[in-house]
Specification:
Pfam families: IMD. This protein is mainly alpha-helical and 112 residues long. Helices cover 91% and strands 0% of the residues.
Length: 112
């Protein structure tokens, strides 16, 4: 009888140990799942920050591109003016037709 009680106690202790081990395993699994979820959250935050950085860079590039395009327009305008001046000043003895018109208009006004 005593032996049987001892065996029962040992079996109960072993069952309790198995239950404790199962609880510990479940707790470890819960902790692992929580760690995975936290890692995923950190990854999402990092990805959001990267997207924001890309957006900021795109805005900065757009501003620079707009400035470059406007400068290109000004350079084209200056090139046109330079070409016109070059063609008008090729022969220093020949006046452009518009300056001759101004001269005739001024002469007609003086004559009146």
């Amino acid at each position: 009888m005593m032996m049987m009680m001892m065996v029962m106690i040992v079996v109960m202790v072993m069952m309790m140990m198995v239950m404790v081990m199962m609880v510990v395993m479940v707790m470890m699994m819960i902790v692992m799942v929580m760690m995975i979820v936290m890692m995923m959250m950190v990854m999402v935050v990092v990805m959001m920050m990267m997207v924001m950085m890309v957006m900021v860079i795109m805005v900065m590039v757009m501003v620079v591109m707009e400035e470059e395009i406007s400068m290109l327009g000004e350079i084209t305008h200056l090139q046109t003016i330079s070409e016109d001046l070059k063609s008008l000043t090729m022969d220093p003895h020949k006046l452009p037709s518009s300056s001759e018109q101004v001269g005739t208009v001024n002469q007609a006004v003086r004559d009146k």
